[in-house]
Specification:
The complex is a heterodimer of chains A (about 500) and B (about 475).
Chain A (H helix, E strand, L loop, with lengths): L5 H19 L4 H25 L8 E9 L4 E7 L1 H20 L7 H20 L3 H12 L1 H9 L12 H7 L4 H29 L7 H5 L5 H19 L7 H8 L2 H26 L1 H28 L3 H21 L3 H32 L15 H14 L6 H15 L6 H24 L18 H17 L2 H18 L4
Antiparallel strand pairs in A: 1-2
Helix pairs in contact in A: 1-2, 1-4, 2-3, 2-4, 3-4, 3-12, 3-15, 3-19, 3-20, 4-5, 4-6, 4-12, 5-8, 6-8, 8-10, 8-11, 10-12, 10-13, 11-12, 11-14, 12-13, 12-14, 12-15, 13-14, 13-18, 14-15, 14-17, 14-18, 15-16, 15-17, 15-19, 15-20, 16-18, 16-19, 17-18, 17-19
Chain B lengths: L1 H23 L7 H19 L4 E3 L4 E3 L1 H22 L4 H5 L1 H20 L3 H19 L6 H32 L4 H8 L4 H18 L7 H8 L2 H7 L2 H15 L9 H20 L5 H21 L3 H32 L10 H4 L1 H15 L5 H15 L3 H26 L13 H19 L2 H12 L3
Antiparallel strand pairs in B: 1-2
Helix pairs in contact in B: 1-2, 1-5, 2-3, 2-5, 3-5, 3-11, 3-12, 3-15, 3-20, 3-21, 5-6, 5-12, 6-7, 6-12, 7-8, 7-9, 7-10, 9-12, 10-14, 11-15, 13-14, 13-19, 14-15, 14-18, 14-19, 15-17, 15-18, 15-20, 15-21, 17-19, 17-20, 18-19, 18-20
The chains are: A mainly alpha (about 500), B mainly alpha (about 475).
């Protein structure tokens, strides 16, 4: 099994699925879903497999593959995975597998929908496993672009009524509509990729214009001034995707307008891609730059946590609540990495995973609720717990993980991160973090109480709503199971992650 | 001597053939001469791919070096596509006067071919005028339409003024260096005489009009909007490429360390052109005007490669030109197809095109993505390569400006994509595309995708072409 190009298979299986869907499954919606399911389960099985057989003692990048692409410029198709990327690959597999089920009910143009979704996933996998910066950038673009069509065609427009003195401007730009959200998201992320491209080119030229390989660049100590600005370029570029304040505004609009599976994938995995980029390229290649700028990264992360939580509290649209909670939780991820401690960085990576699963679950649930009740307005709904006990339970578990209750994955992540923050030179970071956790419990419990556990709504539309049925259960069961599993046995994730973070921190000079 | 000038002589023969055939044909429909022109161009193109570099004629005034051969192939490909696209034109004026149209187009091509080889100021200028004058004529081809006349007049006036600038500038160059031979001009440039620099700067201004860099771009949108679309497709690529060749010959070839003089000027021009072109494209409602402004921005990106003043920079510009050729001409051909079917050049006419004509919409999407610089289509490599060349020169600020404005460009390209893919169609029937037009669109799409997937051979060829300059 070792000789197989496992990472390539994981990466390209969804793409093959997409091609098959485009060519074989015209006007056969069921076949479309089966092909999507098969191709993603290939990826899922293999990612679990490599996660298990990864040799922790040897650590470093394993499952290495290389193929020259453009030899004169030193561009190679170079793949490899360490503990951190393995966990991210696993996360991607779980989310897309659940996402295929969650979009089972897409009616309009489902063939193109699934094809684009699978292409997108190939891009995501590719970013996590490429070791060549150029190929990484290519995959990054693949992961960003299909989003425009996915949101633009299959998205939903929110029910936001523009108010206040700028209402005219909102109406003219069409804030809240899916077209607006799709365009905003795409432009923000491409804006970020412009910075990433400049950073990558700068490193490439500084390393002698011979290779884009991460492994080779890792061995080079770049000039301090260069490190400083390239780190900022990467931070802004990848940070936009990770939803750093004040460049996060694409995320609530985009996630709220996107169709269910796309929201799951985007909030669950793509935002992690940004955080992963900052850790991998920012911390990994630019140690001096990282040490110089972590104070900024951490401070902005604190703003993210509190600001995201406060914004989530103010929302009346269910999907916007979840979307803003992502902004807040991504702050925890960025805070963890800014601590530059072993515990904090582990917590950060663990939070990427935990938040990915949790927010995926949330968006799947919101999608289900919307499908049953045709509403996202929190305060019109009420008492759904009696009619849909399954959905209500899953929502509550996700909510408890979100606010960091022990025995859920969210607890482990937040606990480690806050501990790391306390150990770091900026121990005051702990306070915004804890305040954020508190605010999270306020908005999550408020929503859960209002929609599921509170008084029954008198609205005649909400009287006889079914619970989840058939394939709809799949996504919920998978995600709830993962969330609890990693909550009670965090060692499954932390073991491999630790093998990746410790060498990183040694290179940064904070660990001996 | 023959071997060095085969293409030029062949083209002159072709022009005469087309002319005579045109005289003999039926009065009302002379479109058939276009087929003859296309076949002739295809033959010349085949010859161009067999051409060997190395010939030096007339005491060094006319050289057939790698750069000349590369650009001649480019001109021939562009013109062949332009002629093929023009064969799909349906208007009666066009059918009656097709001979004039093709003869003018080929004459302009002859100017370009000579220009690519010219190493002497007077030959350079004469070739330049031979290229430019037929363009004015074709711009005003539909002479009974006010718009067309206005566009041609605007183009003509600005074009001649810019030619005057060039001649005026070159007179200084001649006055100081006391020679019209470019090799000696380059040597004189090393002394950095202020009048010589003045002359070169004036010439650069004149060339700026020709390549339509900001702030010399005003004629572009109006001319593009009014002239016939397949011609505009060609106009937007071939003469621009010729302008760049002149710039290479005049400002870079054999100049040595003095080339660094041009870095700030070219970088400034590049940055301002990119910013202005992209920003002005945003509010456009007419697709041809949109493409006109986006074309201005692309000239800016090519100038980024020029600003690098290195062999890499020039090579990457040449690559960019080829990528731009396929992307831009393809987009214009799609515009022509839609305009013939729906009678509209508004962006709104593209509503639901994906459901009406999926292949046409997909081609357009590919062209737009290529122009926007998205991976796996040619434009991505083009942008990446010019940025790389600029990064080598240490101009990261220019790379950042370029990269950020790419996002603006994608905004307006995506607006068109949105019309095609997201909006519902206003009428159900598919867009009929004449076979010639369909063929040219497919060639362009193949070029865009082919270069996007496997850019290596062209990159190598571009490197070879540029290596002789430094």
């Amino acid at each position: 099994m070792r000789g197989m190009p496992t990472l390539s298979i994981i990466t390209w299986a969804p793409f093959v699925g997409a091609v098959l869907i485009m060519f074989l499954a015209r006007h056969r919606p069921l076949l479309v879903r089966w092909i999507a399911l098969c191709s993603t389960s290939v990826s899922l099985v293999l990612s679990i497999f490599i996660y298990v057989i990864y040799e922790r003692e040897a650590a470093g990048f394993q499952f290495y593959e290389e193929l020259p692409l453009v030899p004169p410029l030193g561009i190679n198709y170079q793949l490899g995975a360490d503990g951190m990327s393995l966990l991210m690959v696993l996360l991607t597999s779980i989310i897309i597998f659940a996402g295929v089920f969650a979009s089972w009910t897409v009616k309009e143009r489902s063939q193109e929908f699934y094809a684009l979704l699978l292409v997108l996933v190939t891009g995501v996998y590719g970013v996590f496993v490429s070791l060549d910066l150029f190929v990484l950038f290519l995959f990054y673009e693949i992961a960003v672009l299909p989003m425009y069509l996915l949101i633009g065609i299959w998205g939903s427009s929110g029910e936001v009524r523009p108010q206040g003195i700028f209402a005219w401007a909102f109406r003219r730009t069409g804030v809240g509509t899916k077209e607006y959200a799709a365009m905003k998201l795409t432009l923000y992320l491409l804006f970020g990729s412009a910075f990433i491209l400049v950073g990558i080119l700068a490193l490439y030229v500084a390393a002698g214009s011979t290779s884009f390989s991460f492994l080779e660049m890792e061995g080079i100590a770049f000039d301090r001034g260069l490190q400083s600005w390239v780190f900022l370029a990467f931070y802004v570029g990848f940070g936009i995707l990770a939803g750093i304040w004040p460049l996060h505004t694409w995320s609530p609009d985009g996630h709220a307008s996107a169709p269910t599976a796309v929201s799951m994938l985007h909030a669950g995995v793509l935002m992690k891609l940004g955080a992963y980029g900052v850790v991998r390229l920012g911390l990994g290649l630019l140690p001096d730059g990282a040490v110089q700028w972590v104070w900024l990264v951490g401070a902005i992360a604190c703003v993210n946590i509190v600001y995201g939580a406060l914004s989530a509290m103010a929302q009346t649209d269910l999907k916007y609540v979840i979307a803003y909670s992502s902004v807040s939780h991504m702050g925890v991820v960025m805070l963890g990495m800014a601590t530059l401690t072993e515990i904090g960085l582990n917590g950060s990576v663990f939070q990427m995973f935990a938040h990915g699963i949790m927010t995926g679950l949330f968006f799947a649930l919101v999608g289900l609720v919307y499908e049953k009740a045709h509403s996202r307005a929190i305060f019109t709904m009420g008492g759904f717990g009696q009619m849909m006990p399954g959905i209500a339970t899953a929502f509550t578990i996700a909510g408890l993980s979100s606010l960091g209750l022990p025995a859920t994955a969210g607890f482990v992540a937040e606990f480690l991160t806050f501990l790391g923050a306390w150990q770091s030179p900026w121990s005051w970071w702990l306070f915004p973090g804890v305040i954020g956790a508190f605010l999270t419990s306020v908005y999550v419990l408020r929503v859960a109480k209002q929609i599921f556990w509170g008084l029954k709504s008198t609205d005649p539309h909400f009287q006889h709503l079914p619970d989840a049925q058939g394939t709809e259960w799949a996504a919920l069961v998978i995600l709830v199971f993962t969330l609890v599993l990693f909550g009670v046995a965090p060692g499954i994730a932390l073991g491999p992650v630790d093998t990746a973070t410790v060498p990183l921190l040694i290179r940064l000079g904070v660990l001996q | 001597m023959m071997s060095g000038m085969t293409l030029e002589i062949g083209l002159a023969v072709l022009i005469l053939l087309v002319f005579v055939t045109g005289l003999a044909g039926r009065r009302e429909d002379r479109r058939r001469v276009g087929v003859l022109a296309a076949i002739g161009l295809a033959v010349l193109l085949a010859l161009a791919f067999r051409a060997e570099p190395g010939a030096v004629l007339f005491g060094g005034t006319f050289v057939q070096d790698e750069l000349a051969i590369f650009t001649k192939r480019l001109f021939l490909v562009a013109t062949l596509l332009g002629v093929l696209g023009s064969l799909g034109l349906r208007t009666p004026t066009f059918a009656r006067r097709a001979t004039e149209y093709y003869v003018a187009m080929l004459a302009s091509l002859l100017g370009m071919l000579v220009l690519a080889s010219a190493r002497e100021l007077i030959l350079l200028f004469v070739a330049f005028e031979l290229m430019s004058i037929p363009l004015y004529v074709i711009s005003g081809f539909r002479k009974r339409e006010g718009e067309s006349v206005e566009a041609a007049l605007k183009f003509f006036l600005i074009g001649t003024v810019s030619s005057a600038f060039i001649v005026y500038g070159l007179s200084f160059v001649y006055g100081i260096s006391k020679t019209t031979d470019l090799a000696h001009v380059a040597a004189a440039l090393a002394d950095g005489h202020p009048l010589l620099l003045l002359g070169m700067t004036l010439t650069l201004g004149g060339l700026g009009f020709k390549i339509a860099a900001f702030p010399f771009h005003m004629w572009v949108p109006d001319t593009y909007e009014a002239a016939s679309t397949p011609f505009v497709a060609w106009l937007s690529v071939a003469p621009k490429a010729a302008g760049f060749v002149v710039m290479f010959r005049l400002y870079l070839e054999g100049v040595g360390d003095a080339v660094l003089l041009w870095v700030p000027v070219a970088a400034g021009l590049a940055a301002i052109t990119i910013v202005a072109g992209n920003l002005m494209a945003i509010p456009q409602q007419n697709i041809k005007r949109l493409l006109a402004y986006s074309g201005i921005a692309h000239i800016g990106y090519m100038l980024v490669g020029f600003a690098a003043v290195s062999a890499d920079g020039v090579a990457m510009m040449l690559f960019y030109l080829v990528a731009y050729l396929f992307g831009n001409m393809g987009a214009f051909f799609v515009v022509e197809a839609v305009a013939q079917s729906d009678g509209s050049e508004a962006i709104a006419a593209y509503k639901g095109l994906a459901q009406r004509s999926p292949v046409l919409a997909l081609s357009m999407l590919l062209f737009l993505l290529s122009l926007g610089g998205i991976p796996f289509v040619a434009g991505f490599w083009a942008k990446l390569y010019v940025f790389w060349a600029a990064a080598e020169r240490g101009m990261y600020w220019l790379v950042l400006v370029g990269a950020i404005l790419t996002v603006v460009a994608l905004f307006y390209y995506l607006l068109v994509a949105k019309r095609m893919y997201i909006d519902a169609p206003e009428r159900p029937q598919p867009v009929p595309v004449s076979p010639f037009l369909a063929f040219s669109i497919l060639v362009c799409a193949a070029g865009v995708v082919g270069l996007g997937v496997y850019p290596k051979p062209l990159v190598m060829a571009a490197f070879r072409a540029a290596s002789g300059l430094f």
